[in-house]
Write a structure and sequence with these properties.
single chain, mainly beta, three-stranded antiparallel β-sheet, two-stranded antiparallel ribbon, 2 helices, flat
């Protein structure tokens, strides 16, 4: 994939928010489910123009896709932190 990073996305769409606003992290430890609360600033999303789409993650699984991605965005790295995980379930 080759892409050109464009202008900042000033107003996030509902999809942008759904994809990037994650505040929980889960980990399975045997039969136990652990949950962590994630703290991070908003992602500074930027528009992306797809230039070339020859390979994709699906092809690594032996699946063939012929359509370009429905949605693209780019964000630089941000710092993320979370306190210790807590047990939420015993299966």
């Amino acid at each position: 994939m080759r892409a050109k990073i464009g202008n900042a996305i000033e107003i996030k769409s509902e999809l942008d928010r759904w994809i990037t606003d994650r505040y929980r992290l889960y980990q399975r430890d045997g039969k136990t489910i652990l949950q962590g609360t994630v703290h991070h600033p908003d992602w500074n999303l930027r528009q992306v123009e797809l230039i070339e789409n020859r390979g994709n993650f699906a092809s690594l699984l032996g699946l063939e896709t012929v359509t370009p991605p429905d949605h693209l965005a780019y964000a630089p790295e941000i710092d993320v932190s979370f306190p210790p995980f807590v047990r939420i379930s015993l299966a």
